[in-house]
Amino acid sequence: MIEKIDIEDLKEIALKAGEIIMQIYIKDFNIEYKDDESPLTQADLKSNELICNELNRLYPNTPIMSEENKEVPYEIRRDWEYYFCVDPIDGTKEFIKKNDEFTVNIALIHKNKPVLGVVYAPALNELYWADGKNSYKNMNKLPLNINQNPKEKLFVVASKSHLSSETQEFIDKLDSKEIEQVSKGSSLKLCMVAEGIADIYPRLAPTMEWDTAAADAIVRCAGKMTYNHENNEPMVYNKENLLNPWFVVR
Known about the structure:
Elements lengths: L6 H19 L5 E3 L5 E3 H17 L5 E3 L7 H4 L4 E9 L1 H6 L5 E8 L2 E9 L4 E5 L4 E3 L2 E2 L11 E7 L5 H8 L5 E7 L3 H8 L5 E3 L5 H13 L4 E3 L18 E3 L1
Parallel strand pairs: 3-4, 10-11
Antiparallel strand pairs: 1-2, 4-5, 5-6, 6-7, 7-8, 8-9, 12-14, 13-14
């Protein structure tokens, strides 16, 4: 099945979604709030519509799980062997703040693992993808950088809008002489670890599966891993509860 999905299709869809998002981003736009009080804009909805329509057109037999679609009951989706996991805009808060750190995310999940992924940051013109074997950023194979002395200096990335006290405590206890901590919005944090700009991204705070799936594929195909903080096992997807556990990317 993975051989039948063309990563070039997923990249093209993400780029098209990015165009639609940017048309809205440069103007004034309305903000609504969902039941969980997370923000929603016209850009989220239009991006979602385009991505789902294109995926359905190209791959009509592959189910889609998206943040902006009605949730599929676990009784149905637990039998999915492959499915697309979509976040039409990750970092809606960053989109609203107009700080450019938001992304389009499309992943292919096989059973409980992300195997293909595209993360596109349209305002930054940065395109990351994983083809099942390797990961890339704007045509360059990842990682671009390897820290040879993490005990001397460790580069840590953390959430811009959701830094919890537990995450900060975790960072403060890391074993390195010097810790350089930067904050970033959206799934770009996972991509920074895949790229080698950051050594570690701890997230001891809530996220959903669609927030991480595409970037997690990029992490894994770059030779890194996203670990469940509690048991140190690789993070799994398509759980009954779609809330991610606390995790650490390294």
